[in-house]
Amino acid sequence: MRPFSSRAAQPTPAERTRSILAAARSMTVLTDGVSTEVHHLDGTGVMGHIHLHEPSGTAAPASAVRLPIRLELTDIAPTPVRDRLRARVTLTGLLASPYDAESSRSTCMEFGQAVLEDATGRTFLSLGDLQAATLDPLAEFEAGMLTHLLDSHGELVPLLLRLVRPQPRRGLLRAVPVALDRYGVTLRLEYRDGYEDVRLLFATAVTDVEHAGSRIHALLTAARRASHPNHLPA
How far is residue 184's CA from residue 216's CA, in Å, rounded to a whole number? Predict the structure, then answer.
């Protein structure tokens, strides 16, 4: 596989879902006929207050509370691109007690299923799929890293276009980083008639957030050494 390709290695649906759950700071909770918007902006993810577990496999006592619950989370690009909605994640299950968004205690949720919806379609996932998936080390830092790249080093972003293969077509208006994960960077190429996303792979996958900076610098170094087609803006 070529190191710089629009068909690059990327997280599996389970890995992506787990990363979305880990990084989410807000979600919609629907249970007992009530919709509640939950926000945690103190550095803790909203899913940190919900414990997911497999169904017990035994019949619950008639007096036991079994409240259906639905959690809806959206993955929004942190950078100002067209169509910022990157994915939706929906979790369904049952509660053993009424949900309290203000409680500091963990809510126990009997897992039903997870659904990831993105540009590629819809994927259904089990709790086993999520537990087996490796959490991306950049998941909780992606937003800050992308906004820093764009706001503080925005002049370097067009340089990365030299690595895109095949080359962007004529009429490119701008390129904006729209995603960052352990495997590489995704650029959104915007044209008057639409946009497309291209992947720039790191030489090796990131295993620690401390290594992300060196991987990005390696891409920039490779870009400086690459040819500069006249119709690109960098």
Answer: 8
Say yes or no: domain 142-225 is CATH 3.40.50.410: no
Q: How far apart are CA 14 and CA 104, in angstroms?
A: 28
Give the mean pLDDT per block of 10 residues along the chain (234 residues): 50 96 93 88 75 75 75 96 96 90 84 95 97 96 95 93 92 95 96 95 95 95 81 58
Q: What local confidence, expressed as pLDDT, does residue 55 receive? A: 83
- The CATH class for the domain spanning 13-132 reads mainly beta
As a whole number of angstroms, the distance between CA 219 and CA 184 comes to 9
Residue type (1 letter), 210: E
CA angle 47, 48, 49 (to 5 degrees): 85
Q: Nearest 10 degrees: CA dihedral of 160, 180, 137, 5?
A: -60
